[in-house]
Amino acid sequence: MKDLVGVLYKEVPSGVGSHGRLKLNSDDQRRVIVKGARWAVEQDFGSPEDLEKTESGGCMGDVDTSVVSDKAYERGRAQQGTLGSGNHFMEIQYVSEVYDEQAANAFGLYKDQVTVMIHTGSRGFGHQVCTDFLSSMNLASRKYEIPLADKELACAPFNTQEAQDYFSAMKGAANYAWANRQCVMHWCMESLSKVFGSSPQGLGLGLVYDVAHNIAKVEMHNVGCASKRLVVHRKGATRALPAGHPELASAYKHIGQPVLIPGDMGRASFVLVGTQGAMQQTFGSTCHGAGRVLSRHQAIKKAKGRAIWREMEDIGITVMSAGRGTLAEEMSEAYKDVTDVVDVVHEAGISKKVAMLKPIGVIKG
Fold it and tell me: Which H or E run includes 345?
């Protein structure tokens, strides 16, 4: 496990401001934010089958590349194919429990199987897109006289220029993120092949699902007795589409969408399946993760004088991180117990438990 974690840590750059193995020129960057994961597959970072098992095929269309700032392009130029920092991670896990055999079989999961979960996004590119548009959206909220309940909120009517420009840039950031995870997954597979001396096919490696967790999408939902076109914002939330939904991959049409809910690095993560209940109650959504109980500052303070990596090693989990501060911020006590969170989601009927995954190797930024 130490060898494997070491190779993954070396092959997939992580940490604040980390630079990847790809150096994109301006034309490349525009292709990435227009094509998303399809760009990565065209560069031989994965296969067309991966796109089938990626939300929206790994691409939101109609991106106007001109609304993205030079600074966003500059920040994204060297970060494609990187893990990043904070709560972003790559975990080697094993399937410790199976709750729904039918769904697990459809997803290709079975007891004691080794899996890898990757959590990363649009890196500095997406962060800069958000930063760039905060001021214009704040001005728009006042311009269109929209009362907001919290000073952290900002918005504009969807059909205005301000909203359309932001929505286009956000789609570009989502596409950058899908391409990023596709590249990271490819290098992860290469690392596993290197350590075990077998091809990805020989190791039985394949994508279960790639889903966004910080995105706004135009969708049709029932409101009252009518079907309406809505902009659904999922922030720290993820889709949970039921069996038969038209946007599902053909492989999952009969069972429902795989739902990925990561926990903290010391306990567990879960795979669930989307339900009709989510469509009725939460616009086809469920939670994305466990959620924090300590701020990053509080967690660092609580971890003072402790060797978090050694505590993890003592419970059988090998960890590598770009900085000690990250491990303190991400220690288990900083998060709710994901088992409790997932039980609530399951009992509410907005997604159903399929499998529990326990971590055995962790790479943190």
Answer: helix 338-348
